[in-house]
Amino acid sequence: MEQVQEGSGIRISRPARRIGWLGTTPFFAIHLLAFGTIWTGITPAAAICCVALYFIRMFAVTGVYHRYFSHRTYKTSRVFQFILAFVAQTSAQRGALWWAAHHRHHHRYSDQVEDLHSVSQDGFWYSHMLWIFDEGTQSTDYNRIRDFARFPELRFLNKFYLLPPIMLGTAIFFWLGASGLFFGFFFSTVLLWHGTFTINSLSHVFGNRRFATTDHSRNNWLLAIVTMGEGWHNNHHRYSGSTRQGFYWYEYDITYYILRALSLVGLVWKLQPVPEAVLAEGRASDRLHGSMAPVLPGNTVQG
Ligand SMILES: [Zn+2]
Ligand SMILES: [Zn+2]
């Protein structure tokens, strides 16, 4: 533990940041492998594969790791839950239980000293990606995710979290060859990682603050495109129990539209709405400050 001097003068303890640099090796190796595309070239099939794998897996990150396992904003069957977890884990962002347990911790302590990935506490690169390799974030605290840890098949996936991405990469290689592997799989995986990570880093720095939450979360229309709806991050920190994060019709939320489609065919159900009181609160704030203020650093409408 290390002592941190707070503005109020109160000293609070938190685990010291200790990045396991050796553990970052595969992560940076995949970045280098993405450049293998220079030698393999890009076939049309590999290009389609890259775009498809980015969007399918981004949906799985936001719609599954985040809106299902972390926040339980809809329900599904045990079989489809396993399929969703498997697809989400092809993103190579560790197990669904690991992801959700750490994310629940973020909501509990966002931008406080205990937060595991806070820009204001630890700087951009740590909050963006280095926190993943911190010795303090390696294990899964099953107490934080007891509701899903009771399923042995999910604990299996969580333990062998590299199985889904290795299976996907291997299948792509045999199907589309070297170009498919290097551009379709490795390159899209790197894009997907950094697209996802912007929510922990940039979405707590750039954008509009419709709601005066206790953290620094922002709504950012550009990041909402990159992340298929997660960019409405200030909305989400105000109310994390709803399936949609774009609270109003003009706040596009592709992940939510896909979940709505899945609910129409009966694969998922009980999608949670945004409470009317929260919507009214947001409308009142927009009338005062405007909702789509430019994406600029320090654009703090409130709070
Ligand atoms: Zn969340
Ligand atoms: Zn956040």
In short:
With 303 residues, the protein is mainly alpha-helical. It has one domain (28-289). The chain has helices at residues 25-34, 37-40, 44-70, 78-89, 96-109, 119-122, 124-128, 146-149, 152-159, 163-197, 221-226, 233-238, 254-264, 276-289; strands at 2-5, 11-14, 75-76, 268-269.
What are the defining features of this structure?
binds zinc ion; 303 residues; mainly alpha; two-stranded antiparallel ribbon; globular
Instruction: Specify the structural class.
Output: mainly alpha
Low-confidence stretches: 1-12, 294-303
| Cα shape | globular
Q: How do the helices and strands follow one another from N- to C-terminus?
A: EEHHHEHHHHHHHHHHEH
How far apart, in Å, are the first and last alpha carbons?
Answer: 30 Å
Oligomeric category: single chain
Helix count equals 14
Total number of strands: 4
What number is the mean pLDDT?
91
Largest sheet: 2 strands, antiparallel
* Rg measurement, Å: 19 Å
Lateral strand order in the biggest sheet: 1-2
Folded structure, characterized:
- There is one protein chain.
- The protein is 53% helix and 4% strand.
- The chain is mostly helical.
- The protein has one domain.
- The protein has a two-stranded antiparallel ribbon.
- A hairpin with a 5-residue loop joins strand 1 (2-5) and strand 2.
- Helix 3 (44-70) crosses helix 4.
- The longest helix has 35 residues, at 163-197.
- The radius of gyration is 19 Å and the shape is globular.
- Residues 1-12 and 294-303 have low confidence and may be disordered.
- It binds zinc ion (2 copies).
- One zinc ion (ZN) is lined by residues 66, 70-71, 103, 107, 236, 240.
